[in-house]
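WP5 quarterly update. Target: 2-oxoglutarate dehydrogenase E1 component. Source organism: Altererythrobacter arenosus. Length: 688 aa.
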Amino acid sequence: MNISPEVFSETGSFDTRLDSETAIGIYQIMRRIAETDQSIQRQLAAGELQFQYYPCGGQEAIPAAIAPLLSPDDRAVITYRCIHDIVAKGTPIKSIVAEMFGKATGTCGGKGGPMHLSDPANGLMATTGIVGAGAPIANGIALAKQLAGSGQIVICSFGDGAANIGAVHEALNLAGLWNLPVVFVCQNNLYAEYTSFEESTAARTIAERGPSYGIVGHRVDGTSPEEIYEAAQTAITRARAGEGPTLLECVAPRLQGHAFGSDEAHMDAEMLAAGRADPPIAKYRRQLIDSFGVDPTLLDAIDAEAKTEVQDALEFAKAAPFPTEEQLIRDVFAPGEKPVIESLPSRPIEVGCDAAFTSMPYAGAINAALDHALTHDDKVVVLGEDIADPAGGVAKATIGLSTKHGAERVRNTPISEQAIVGAAIGAAMEGLRPVAEIMLADFAMVCMDQIANHAAKLRYMSGGKTTVPLTIRMLTAGNIGSFGAQHSQSLEAWFAHIPGLKIALPATPADAKGLLLSAINDPDPCIVIESMRCYFTPGDVPDGDYRVPLGVAKVVREGTDATVISYGWALHEVLAAAGELADAGIEIEVVDLRSIVPLDMATVSASVAKTGRAMIVHGAVEFGGIGAEIAARLAENHGAELKAPVARLGSAYTPVPFAQNLEAAHFPDPSSIVERLKSLIGGADGES
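Structure tokens (predicted):
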């Protein structure tokens, strides 16, 4: 296949030519890639390895030709068909092969495997097993490089199948809008898994989509190192000069099925046979000899060196130890962090609470926290839909921040949740402390992949080499009337089920500021769920650097007859119910969890040991809620001490209704809390 370069916007012509040293260097990388790829396939065939593997045969030239144009400080985000990309970026083959064997000496300590390789030391920031998901993350890395003025760029590689994923389109749009220094490399092997390119899209090419997003598009023969090098050099030079992103489509027909051992009946048999008879690496070897006058014995030596290097890597990997079982629970969070606090914390309940106070609404406290963070830490950036002035956010939580701190640090985004969260993830990986706003918790479902499969897992999959100090703010709009089923949900139980995420739910203005500042300064990804029901409720908020540590609950009302555990807006319903019961001589102790990951079971247990009865109240649906987790732990650890079974009260198992009378019946309120507590206290031992 001979595909001529096509330019889809005015960038000038390709006029660079390879010198012989660079040309030989590209061949050396291609041979190292091919030997590594083939060795892995031999080990799979022999049963020495067992995993789903995606060979790169036919595509070796693409990263090999780009590699000489990159420095170790330039970044790469790649996809699961990745062995060629990671070898070309400079990761030692010994550690790559050891990772294939799940060994402790592997690139990721055996925790990533073939689809999740990362090597930040050599600029390989992430490999994603989710099709197209790397593009939004690449944008965030590029944003960090742009803000730093480093001149460094990001290469983002994906396949032709990913070009039809929404995340890629959101990323292309944002990259064009923000003029980011990123080169999107579509490695078009003409099949999206088992579906041909012609059956996947009506578009003639992938590259022609670029101008639709204000991005330059090039299409080149992905089996020709010379064409790839020339096009990539143009794109990388533009990116370094601040001239924006490029969409580079490299067409390189696949030389095997989708995965190792998969069938090939869906493929063009004639094209497949021709490609195998004269693969790109063989054609390039002839070109080096015929056009560059390279001595064949030099190429023979390169071939032999690659075989020896890979064989040494194989022996190294087989002899290396497996990770110890203790590694299973490491790298979920930063060192020393746990999802559940079992003993009473030695750290203070609040930091900076002795400062002067200012009365302000809950929304104002969020604004104050963001303002403080932006003022005192230049690594903090805020991004989201409609957050800049004059809008200042749909509920005015960010009003005035872009005017004070500038549009570079308080960034309006398109309505593109995947692009927003992905960019925040990438920026966090580069050392920024981004705060991403998802307008309502319901909309987090649109970008759940970025939250659950990337933000939460990158530290673990990289064996602790990657950190994601990211904060995601979102509103829960339930129980305020008329928002309905798609704008009112409380999804904290979803997030709590994903290892790697920390989750805070402030109920008061002071905690809104204190928990948000703690989240921004935390080394792990944090989700702060704000209650719209509380947004305009005033309270005293400490000035300055006030923080509420994550994982520290607070007894907000002392009592002796029962403990009620709650958080978020539901806490206020509990306090109202406790006040009503106090008039009847029943004293309820109320514990505000404040965060559910980490979960402060120590404070909860101490309170329940004191009162002998427990009930958990939350605004989320009761079935499968966080209350079940707490109830189970209390039953396991305090069963003999309890005067009654642990009770729960959450919302009805229905979507949130529109009609206000039905919505009121859906959520817990003081009367339903009082009724359940009276049953708990009176029904346990006959006492009132």
